[in-house]
Amino acid sequence: MKRALFSVAALSCGLSACAGGPPRAAPGVDCSAEDGYDFDVLQPMEGTTAQWFPFGDMTPGAMDAFEVREIPGGRCGSSAALVLTSHGHTDWGGGFGEYQTAAAPVDASAYEGVSFWARATGFGTSSGFLLTINDRDTSMMGGVCIQRMAQDVAAGTYTYNEGGMLVPVGGALPGPDDCGNSFQRPVFARREWYLHRLPFASFLQTPNPNRIPTGIDRSGLYQFSINIPKDSNIELWIDDFGLYRTQEDPP
How far is CA 135 from CA 108, 170, 190, 239, 245, in A? Predict the structure, then answer.
């Protein structure tokens, strides 16, 4: 997860500057946005949040919190959503990861990309975040790069920072086979509920030596995370997080 540190920092100005304005009444939800697609909902958010965890820099007073809340009035048959709240980070930012795919990696070979419903509301004034995917080549749990990382730690070229992330010592570049160069793309939530469909091809890595030119290995997705840029003040609602594909014979 080490790459998230500088990738969030590099994009923080652009994302956090895109404030969504003061809260306002949300218009009606367009449930027909799901027409013509098949979905594999990995996390419907109707129950526990135990599979999620917060992380962030050590800014005093910063907060990253999450909980499942009832959706006022419901949304297309869904009654609850995961609400992520983050503010007060002034170093590299904060975020939220999930354990579910780490425990049971997802084979997304038959799907085009990631889908979820989202809205930015409440007290927050920011709406931008980075959605991150770790596959079998970039995650330590994938078994491909973990041996090299163990060697790096033993050699003293990598260390754990105060946030528990592995980072190169002295700001050195990662090695060609190192873990951590996750696939990411920026997302801007709207004030109203909106169905985001993000093709796998739109997720990119930073141009470091451990970049994988073949893109995401869809046969083994090991973790998703939501990275919040520094100086953000966001309340983000996420629902029906999963995968999508276009129907072969849509109605």
Answer: 10, 27, 28, 22, 19
